[in-house]
Write a structure and sequence with these properties.
There is one protein chain. Helices cover about 35% and strands about 20% of the residues. By secondary structure, it is α+β, with helices and mostly antiparallel strands. The protein is globular, with a radius of gyration of 13 Å. The chain has a three-stranded antiparallel beta sheet with strand order 1-3-2, covered by helices on one side. The two termini are about 25 Å apart. Helix 1 runs antiparallel to helix 2. The mean pLDDT is about 90. It has one domain: ATP-grasp fold, B domain (D-amino Acid Aminotransferase, Chain A, domain 1, 2-Layer Sandwich), CATH 3.30.470.20.
């Protein structure tokens, strides 16, 4: 899940595979949570690909968080192993 804080709605998010948008219909203000994006799949590489694309569609303030997510995703134990 990626919390959307003070970020305007970007309709391009909706065209990405694995991405589900929850928009709260609030005015976009600095530091206000206005929604979140969920990514769901059993395929880690598919999630990583979507995260990398989302990163290009979000403000640069999200880069560190998405980088952290990618690192955790690729280094965490699988639940089915």
């Amino acid at each position: 899940m990626i919390n959307l804080i003070g970020t305007a709605l970007n309709s391009a998010w909706l065209s990405l595979p694995l991405v589900h948008l929850h928009w709260y219909e609030k005015d976009v203000l600095p530091a206000r949570k206005v929604g979140h994006l969920n990514l769901c799949s059993n395929n880690r590489q598919a999630i990583k690909n979507s995260l990398n694309t989302i990163q290009t569609l979000l403000p640069s303030e999200y880069n560190d968080s998405i980088g952290w997510l990618n690192t955790k995703l690729m280094h965490s134990p699988r639940h089915d192993e």
